[in-house]
């Protein structure tokens, strides 16, 4: 019923509404009394008598029901209906979060369904939806890096940009240091008290002019925590092993190689943590744990104001009584003397 605003309706004295239960008994009593006291004349035949359908007669016969309506309106007025005009004030101390997403060709490996990249994007989008008060940004990297989205609270736009990421946009490779440096550059001057980077990769650093260790030192200097996630099963996975002459990826079985020691080092040195995701369910659990560890401080205060509506029912009842009184003094005066 919220579409017509009834979810905002309150009654200050709802016990008066119990009086409405008496109305059906009053109506029944009046009907029964009317049936017992009705005067009638017996005619041999009434087929030739024209039925009296004057509006005055109809109105006079309906006076009882109008009075019952007046009683109902007065009862509703006594119950004091009022609209809730609720003001919600939210003071949120958000966290600045940057997602650093690996776009190297190995992210197309199919040990995740359909592949590592698509699952990683879906889980990240779900994580974003659970952080409504945080400013979140997105950077992507392979052999080089770029910022896909700066820090923003427009999470719908961010999720759309995240969904557009795909392998092959940049030179292939895994430049973890470049990806971290791109995120750090966006976070270092931010005013948020808490800043984190969620690094997601499935390989070994093999490109870029900035080493992951140097990037970790920069993050530590600017008090930025790094949570690293290594994506991929153990052993081998059906992965891109090259490209055809038409530029399409050629797949084959390849070993899964993740530099877990490096990822653990850069995470712990900044106060973060390293995780290994071997399937989609584990990846979801990791994001859930990060969400739990990095809670946003939110203070919500509610200020309630009310708009009284009993006057409407009171005035409606009084207007009906006044209308009845005026009609009985004028148009219905003669009729009332004979009915």
Q: What would your notes on this structure say?
A:
- 39% of the residues lie in helices and 25% in strands.
- The protein has 339 residues and is an alpha/beta fold.
- Strands 5-4-3-6-7-10 form a six-stranded mixed beta sheet, with helices on both faces. A three-stranded antiparallel beta sheet has the order 1-2-11.
- The protein folds into two domains: 91 residues, no CATH class; 201 residues, Rossmann fold (3-Layer(aba) Sandwich), CATH 3.40.50.
Brief rundown of the structure:
The protein is 39% helix and 25% strand. The chain has 339 residues and is of the alpha/beta class.
Keywords:
339 residues, alpha/beta, 6-stranded mixed beta sheet, 3-stranded antiparallel beta sheet, 11 helices, 11 strands, 25% strand
What overall form do the CA principal axes indicate? elongated
- Can you give the mean pLDDT? 85
The biggest sheet amounts to: 6 strands, mixed
Q: What proportion of the residues is helical, as a percent range?
A: 25-40%
Q: Which CATH class of the largest domain is shown?
A: Alpha Beta
Element order, helices and strands? Answer: EHHHEEHEEHHEHEEEHEHEHH
Distance between the termini: 45 Å
- Helix count, per DSSP? 11
Structural class: alpha/beta
The number of distinct β-strands equals 11
Strands of the widest sheet, in order across it, are 5-4-3-6-7-10
């Amino acid at each position: 019923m919220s579409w017509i605003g009834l979810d905002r309706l309150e009654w200050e004295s709802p016990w008066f509404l119990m009086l409405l239960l008496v109305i059906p008994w009053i109506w029944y009593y009046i009907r029964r009394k009317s049936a017992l006291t009705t005067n009638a004349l017996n005619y041999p035949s009434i087929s030739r008598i024209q039925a009296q359908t004057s509006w005055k007669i109809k109105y006079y016969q309906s006076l009882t029901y109008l009075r019952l309506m007046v009683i109902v309106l007065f009862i509703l007025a006594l119950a004091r209906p009022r609209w809730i005009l609720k003001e919600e004030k939210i003071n949120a101390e958000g966290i600045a979060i940057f997602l650093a997403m690996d776009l190297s060709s190995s992210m197309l490996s199919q040990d995740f369904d359909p592949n590592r990249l698509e699952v990683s994007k879906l889980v990240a989008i779900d994580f974003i939806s659970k952080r409504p008060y945080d400013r979140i940004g997105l950077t992507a990297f392979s052999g080089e890096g770029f910022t896909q989205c700066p820090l923003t609270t427009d999470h719908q736009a961010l999720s759309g940009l995240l969904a557009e990421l795909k392998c092959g946009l940049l030179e292939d490779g895994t430049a973890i240091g470049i990806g971290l440096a791109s995120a750090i550059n966006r976070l270092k001057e931010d005013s948020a008290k808490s800043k984190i980077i969620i690094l997601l990769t499935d390989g070994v650093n093999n490109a870029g002019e900035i080493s992951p260790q140097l990037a970790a030192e920069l993050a530590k200097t600017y008090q930025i925590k790094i949570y690293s996630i290594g994506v991929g099963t153990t052993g081998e996975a059906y992965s891109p092993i090259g490209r055809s002459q038409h530029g399409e990826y050629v797949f084959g079985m390849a070993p899964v190689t993740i530099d877990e020691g490096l990822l653990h080092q850069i995470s712990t040195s900044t106060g973060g943590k390293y995780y290994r995701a071997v399937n989609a369910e584990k990846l979801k659990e990791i994001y859930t744990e990060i969400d739990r560890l990095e809670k946003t401080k939110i203070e919500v205060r509610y200020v309630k104001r009310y708009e009284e509506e009993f006057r409407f029912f009171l005035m409606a009842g009084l207007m009906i009584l006044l209308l009845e009184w005026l009609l009985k003094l004028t148009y219905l005066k003669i009729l009332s003397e004979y009915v």
